[in-house]
Amino acid sequence: MYFFGAGLFVTSLAVRTDVLSSLAVGMTAFGFVLHSAVLHTLLFGTGHVALSSLFDVMVFFSWGLILTFLIVEYANRIPVLGSFVLPLAVLALIVAATVRQDLQVLEPVLSNIWLHVVMTVSGTIAFALAFVASIMYLLQERLLKSRRFIPMYYKLPPLDFLDNLNGKSILLGFPLLTLGIVAGAVWANFASGSYWNWDPKQISTALTWLFYLIVVLGRVMVGWRAKHAAYLTIIGFGGVLVTFANVG
After folding, report:
1. In whole angstroms, what is the distance from residue 35 CA to residue 100 CA?
2. What is the DSSP string of the chain?
């Protein structure tokens, strides 16, 4: 459902009518209901520690990303957002489908890894929305400068809205990532007796956190906006992808 919805969303960028995007929103919502049922079974019906593998993380990430899109779409009526969010969610599910799905059994005291993952992935979802807003911002700015008033121009939101969405998403995602890192350190201490083990996942997460800290301070204290903030957000999300690649 997401795959066909993404196709409709992308196709809708080339036409002025909103019929395709409206159909795509409905298809996405229906797919989300099915996705929620699958996620519930994965978390509570398989008997393994929830959110303990890359497969689990990717399924949860795509679910949260779609949920975020549906909320933003309901509040702001900007279905064009789906043209950029749906392909990302589909890509996450493709990754999930290609990785091993080994069940992990941990001691009960260590089974609270889900709290670390939920916080971290929730922050990542917010960063993904900021990334999408940045891509849309740069596209809209280029269309304005080149005076290319193609159908996509009329569908993309105003630059101020996209910059505001970028900023709010980062300001939401950063504290969630911070809480996720703290929860992960506590879990690591239970698992290995050390809060910090200098493994690639921890290092990449720390570097990503530091980068977004600079972006947050730049937005709040220096006033970074517009194209500058958009480019930094795109770079930061590249660090997020590296972190995901290190999830075992």
Report:
1. 19
2. -HHHHHHHHHHHTTSS-SHHHHHHHHHHHHHHHHHHHHHHHHHHSS-SPTT-SHHHHHHHHHHHHHHHHHHHHHHH--GGGHHHHHHHHHHHHHHHHHS--------GGGTTHHHHHHHHHHHHHHHHHHHHHHHHHHHHHHHHHHT---HHHHHSPPHHHHHHHHHHHHHHHHHHHHHHHHHHHHHHHHHHS-S----HHHHHHHHHHHHHHHHHHIIIII---HHHHHHHHHHHHHHHHHHHHT--
Residue 43 confidence (pLDDT): 78
Tokens 């975020």 belong to 68
Domain map (residue ranges) of the chain: 1-103, 106-248
pLDDT tens for each residue of 15-58:
888 899 999 999 999 999 999 998 888 877 766 656 777 888 89
* Contact yes or no for 1/27 (Cβ under 8 A): yes
User: Do 202 and 246 touch, CB atoms closer than 8 A?
Assistant: no
